[in-house]
Design goal:
Elements (H helix, E strand, L loop, with lengths): L6 E6 L5 E6 L9 E5 L5 H6 L6 E5 L9
Parallel strand pairs: 3-4
Antiparallel strand pairs: 1-2
Amino acid sequence: MSSCEEFKGVLVLEDGSIFEGKGLGAEGEAFGEVVFNTSMTGYQEALTDPSYHGQILLMTYPLQGNYG
């Protein structure tokens, strides 16, 4: 059994756009400015970077965690 269960996630933007996907980690509601990171590596640093506090970080590279 996986230590991190997936669940259905939904991103709803201010203009009414809705994007469905999968969530990992804590379930709940959050709100904030959506920002993106295009890095191919270093996502650990991006996820813990205090400059992203209060923002929703979108990772654009499709293979997060699949290297090394």
